[in-house]
Design goal:
Layout: E1 2-3, H1 4-11, H2 15-23, E2 31-32, E3 39-41, H3 45-57, H4 62-68, H5 75-112, E4 122-127, E5 130-139, H6 144-158, E6 162-170, E7 179-187, E8 197-202, E9 205-216, H7 223-233, E10 236-238, E11 244-250, E12 259-270
InterPro entries: AraC_E-bd, DNA-bd_dom_put_sf, MerR-type_HTH_dom, MerR_fam, Reg_factor_effector_dom_sf
Keywords: Coiled coil, DNA-binding
Protein name: Transcriptional regulator
């Protein structure tokens, strides 16, 4: 038998932690002197201690560990708790990876901030009326693929073929994290509107400032910023009540399903 101080050194935990485990009925001493109150532990209890520490390292709470170390707990219940913890950790990793991607994009934007437009050419052109079917919703940028999935499922159910996808970016003063996004597909033939899916003809725009760039649909990019800088420097202004348009074509040479070659279009007029 080992005194609590000796067991603490062997197990590499503090005496305070061992006393706390005792209070929680997580790791009771093998023997407690009824006169002095001294706690004594056996060598076999090191296995229990190491299991507790291993579960703690995996992120389980002491209450969860106490449940898993119960003698009557079914093995399947332990497996279930590990699956839940696995899903929790995977969710955290996914969120952190998304943050890391945004940080990389932000660093890239910072590095290119203030530089003159060298890799992109802005073209002024007239855009003819365009027939589209669209699905509009206040959503985050990451939800854009889901909006297009709903739109494409609707087109497939109607047996209608479509062309390139287009995003209409509307202003939204009351929005916080979400944006007013309209996912659209260019149509070759007219079709009826149904439920949340609207068929309409986008108006002709006599003068549209356009810029072609590479992008990912779920990530912010600097193309619109570059186009805005060009508009300001060249004596133009954005036309009111005209949403920014972005026509996206899948990038054939990329393995990324969200990689596109896109044309940003902003309706302008002389300032």
């Amino acid at each position: 038998m080992f005194k609590i101080s000796e067991f603490s050194k062997i197990g590499q935990v503090s005496v305070k932690a061992l006393r706390y485990y005792d209070q929680l009925n997580l790791l009771k001493p093998a023997h407690t002197d009824k006169y002095t109150g001294y706690r004594y532990y056996s060598a076999d209890q090191l296995f229990q201690l190491h299991r507790i520490l291993a579960y703690k390292e995996l992120g389980f709470s002491l209450d969860q560990i106490r449940q898993m170390m119960g003698e009557d707990i079914p093995l399947e219940q332990i497996r279930g708790m590990f699956r839940i913890k696995q899903n929790e950790i995977q969710s955290v990793l996914d969120k952190e990876q998304a943050k890391l991607d945004r940080i990389k994009e932000r660093l890239h934007a910072i590095e290119n901030e203030g530089k003159h437009l060298t890799s992109h050419d802005v073209v002024l052109k007239e855009v003819e009326p365009q027939l589209v079917v669209s699905y509009r919703q206040k959503a985050s940028l990451s939800q854009l693929p889901e909006l297009f999935r709903r739109l494409d499922d609707h087109l497939e159910s109607c047996g209608v073929s479509s062309l390139s996808q287009m995003v209409l970016w509307h202003g939204c003063e009351e929005c916080e994290d979400d944006m007013d996004i309209e996912a659209a597909r260019l149509l070759t033939h007219d079709m009826p509107s149904r439920s949340h899916f609207t068929v309409k003809r986008l108006p002709e725009v006599p003068m549209m400032a356009t810029l072609i760039h590479h992008c990912r649909t779920t990530s912010p990019c600097t193309a619109s910023t570059e186009l805005a800088i060009w508009i300001e420097r060249n004596g133009y202004r954005m036309k009111e009540n005209e949403p920014r348009r972005e026509i996206c074509i899948p990038h054939e040479k990329s393995d990324d399903p969200e990689a596109y070659v896109a044309e940003v279009q902003i309706a302008v007029e002389r300032a």
